[in-house]
TrEMBL record:
Keywords: Repeat, TPR repeat. Pfam families: ANAPC3. The keyword Ion transport does not apply. TPR repeats lie at residues 28-61, 62-95, 96-129, 130-163, 164-197, 198-231. PANTHER family: CELLULOSE SYNTHASE OPERON PROTEIN C, TPR REPEAT-CONTAINING PROTEIN MJ0798. InterPro entries: TPR_rpt, Ycf3/AcsC/BcsC/TPR_MFPF. This is Tetratricopeptide repeat protein. It comes from Paramecium pentaurelia.
Length: 247
């Protein structure tokens, strides 16, 4: 009888421990989601606080590690962000978002060839990862390989025809190849989806400037400056156009 009671007690204890673990997991998930909401609201430092709370419960939680890295990356601390992506990858070497995040940090550190390596790793796992396709194209564009870059933007657009970054960066490559009509088409597509897309506005202005259409170019540089009034590059391009019109 005592053995039976002990056995029942042991079962109840195991059930209690299981319930406690399940509850702990649910709390951890809720905390992580709260951090994700703050991240999506661009409250990166607050989001990090909540990811840290989630990691205090489970230091091996890959999504929290990765998303903390995302916040740090979005705060322009690229080297620090890489540390958190690597912690996530040490647990799950096939975590696509961490592979992409590390690649993106390397791109932002102007290490384009290294970045491509990590985008390729992400694409080896998920060949339809649009952001990796697009940013690989961006690295090739920054390496002056414009036609190769367009190939990767087209791959991204074959999956998501409304991917604004792929459209505008494709447009910029076409501009650099002096294919202005095709460039306008891609940039206009991007702006039809997001009229406030600053890179597209600047690229269209530059496309017009390249063709000596300074008055039209000013329209797009002015639109860009309404979004970011302190952008020195755009201010400079506007002055160039204004001076050209005075000649």
């Amino acid at each position: 009888m005592i053995k039976v009671i002990n056995y029942i007690g042991m079962i109840n204890m195991m059930r209690l421990q299981k319930c406690q673990k399940n509850l702990q997991n649910k709390i951890q998930i809720i905390i992580n989601h709260y951090g994700s909401c703050l991240r999506l609201l661009n409250n990166y430092e607050d989001a990090i606080t909540w990811y840290d709370k989630a990691l205090a419960i489970d230091s091996q939680h890959v999504d929290s590690l990765c998303e903390k890295g995302d916040c740090i990356r979005l705060l322009n601390n690229y080297e620090d962000a890489i540390t958190w992506y690597e912690k996530a990858l040490a647990i799950n070497s096939k975590h696509v978002d961490s592979l992409f995040g590390k690649g993106d940090c390397l791109r932002l550190l102007n290490k384009y060839q290294d970045a491509i390596t990590w985008y390729n790793k992400a694409l080896a796992i998920d060949s339809k990862h649009v952001d990796s396709l697009c940013e690989k194209g961006d690295c090739l564009r920054l390496l002056n390989k414009y036609q190769d870059a367009i190939t990767w933007y087209n791959k991204a657009l074959a999956i998501d025809s409304k991917h604004v970054d792929s459209l505008c960066e494709k447009g910029d490559c076409l501009r650099l190849l002096k294919k202005y009509d095709e460039s306008f088409k891609a940039l206009d597509q991007a702006l039809s989806i997001n009229p406030q897309h600053n890179f597209s506005l600047k690229s269209k202005g530059l496309c017009l400037e390249d063709q000596y259409k300074y008055k039209e170019a000013l329209i797009y540089f002015d639109k860009s400056l309404k979004i970011n009034p302190n952008d020195l590059w755009t201010i400079n391009q506007k002055k160039i156009c204004e001076n050209k019109l005075k000649q």
